[in-house]
Amino acid sequence: MNTRVLIAEDEPLAAEALAEWVQQMPGLELVASCADGDTALARIRALRPDLVLMDIHMPGLNGLQVLKALADDDAPQPAVIFTTAYDEHALTAFELHAVDYLLKPFSRERLADAIEHALPANPPMLGAVADALQQKAGEPLTRVLVRDQGKIFPLQADAIEYLRSDHKYTALVSKGRSFLVRVPITSFEQRLDPQRFLRLHRSCIVNLDFVEAMVPADNSQLVVQMRDGTRIPASREVSKKLREQSL
Question: Do 214 and 222 contact (CB within 8 A), yes or no?
Answer without folding.
Answer: yes
